[in-house]
TrEMBL record:
Stretches with biased composition (Low complexity): 111-126
Domain of life: Bacteria
Ranges for region Disordered: 109-134
Protein name per its UniProtKB record: Uncharacterized protein
Coiled coil, from the record: 39-66
């Protein structure tokens, strides 16, 4: 059999299923003494690996959706904050309040040209975008700055715009949506990370992982049929590689 060059977690699991099928085809000749090399244990390991693989895919999809949702929720924050400042400036509020609001808005706008990307992942308690935290553009800080802006508006009774999306009640709803999207992203990241850890444990544990067991199965078949046998050639062509991501 020609070597199989495809890589990936799914390919490892698929090749393991092929390996089990070959072992079953050898009938009673395949009779290892080591318990976890026996066919029933191989089948259980395959089922567990497939389950962990599916769960990791599900959690990754959930994480990607949460990432997109948070990005969309925060997308208009900077333009919205600027509109709020302009509305406050013509509301009759005192000059000091306007200057304080402008200072908060400056923090929201940030000074870095770097933007969160589609591959963003939360690496700190501030969530995604840790690489631009120095410009105060991390998501937790954006929430904090927007909270401060709303509190300032609440303390200035002259701020009473007619536009619904600029009213403090609407801004408070926006803030709640931002907090929810941020929390959901952090929780999704945690679940995704844990699913990958669990998958990798099943597939790549140095003693009990699917890749290690497949090597031992191959070695056993080599010992039974010989290195030049067609049986060993069958399984030797099944490739298993360690991957972590």
């Amino acid at each position: 059999m020609a070597p199989v060059y495809e890589t990936g977690h799914a390919k490892n699991v698929a090749n393991f299923q092929d390996l089990i099928s070959f072992c079953q085809s050898y009938g009673t000749t395949y009779n290892p003494t080591k318990e976890n090399l026996k066919i029933p244990q191989l089948q259980l390991l395959y089922q567990e690996a497939q389950s962990k693989l599916d769960d990791a895919k599900t959690q990754k999809a959930t994480f990607d959706n949460a990432t997109n949702s948070r990005r969309n929720t925060f997308a208009d924050l900077r333009s919205l904050s600027t509109r709020v400042i302009n509305a406050l400036a013509v509301s009759g509020a005192d000059a000091l309040a306007i200057e304080d609001a402008k200072a908060i808005n400056k923090k929201i706008q940030g000074t870095s040209s770097k933007k969160p990307t589609s591959t963003e992942t939360p690496t700190t308690s501030e969530g995604a975008g840790g690489g631009i935290s120095t410009s105060q553009q991390s998501y937790d800080r954006l929430i904090d700055h927007f909270t401060s802006l709303i509190e300032l508006l609440n303390q200035n009774k002259s701020y009473a715009p007619n536009e619904d999306d600029l009213k403090t009640t609407t801004l408070q709803t926006k803030l709640t949506e931002m907090k929810t999207a941020n929390t959901e992203l952090i929780n999704a990241f945690t679940a995704n990370s844990n699913a990958m850890i669990s998958r990798n444990e099943t597939l790549y544990h140095k003693q009990t992982g699917l890749v290690q067991i497949s090597k031992e199965v191959k070695q056993y078949i080599k010992s039974v049929f010989g290195a030049g046998s067609p049986q060993y050639d069958q399984v030797n062509g099944l490739e298993f590689k360690v991957r972590r991501n």
